[in-house]
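Obj: model holo form, ligand = coenzyme A.
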Amino acid sequence: MAISIADGVQVQGGDHLADLLWETDPEIFRFIFRDLQVWRRLFPQEWTAAFGTQQADETRVALDGNRVVGLVNSFAGTEVAARFATTMDRQLAALDPDAGQQLTAAFDAMEWLYPHVPDHALYILNIVIAADMRGQDLGRQLIAEAVAKARRLGLRAVHLDTAVGNPAVHFYQRVGFRAVVESRAMSLPDGVTLPNHLRMVLDIGA
Ligand SMILES: CC(C)(COP(=O)(O)OP(=O)(O)OC[C@H]1O[C@@H](n2cnc3c(N)ncnc32)[C@H](O)[C@@H]1OP(=O)(O)O)[C@@H](O)C(=O)NCCC(=O)NCCS
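Output (holo structure tokens):
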């Protein structure tokens, strides 16, 4: 069946999507939520929220029939801080104090690991293609969706962060991104190590 690209609002925010998102950066997701079950429990409220980091209406999905085989979510650089703050508050309210402390520490560390996103950029928080559907140009199509959104919003670049060893770095380079900053988190909670992360940028002109 041909793959179609659709708005996230057309699909339910269940475990399948939560699992796809987890795959985008398992080390970061584990650092924030400890285990997949916690994220699966929190994800549906993010998907349907009016404002936050992983909302359906800021997401484009690749569909094979009814199955979501890929997604990309993104938002304007001007909104990054407010979106992360809103999501953190919502997730803190749903977690016990111990898990909440971990979440706060993780969000604090990410502020250092992920450089500032300028006002003129669209920020891609997550992009993923299901493992059995990779290598068929779907990732490139989802990047094109993000570029189209950036143009609609009058922005002139697309930014994202990825772990240095992630094979996705080669994908981003193939579709035109270049690495501009490498960040190393040096003061993490006991027992936590995170790979250096790269800020990658695609200039799309005015
Ligand atoms: C990264 C990812 C989204 C790429 O999606 P995809 O649909 O497989 O990529 P495409 O088929 O559109 O590939 C586009 C180009 O990138 C290249 N490419 C894709 N993945 C690559 C890889 N791992 N290594 C080298 N090149 C790669 C392709 O060969 C193609 O190049 P071409 O111009 O020569 O044809 C996908 O591999 C994925 O979901 N990975 C796991 C999740 C993840 O790491 N997300 C990013 C987190 S920051």
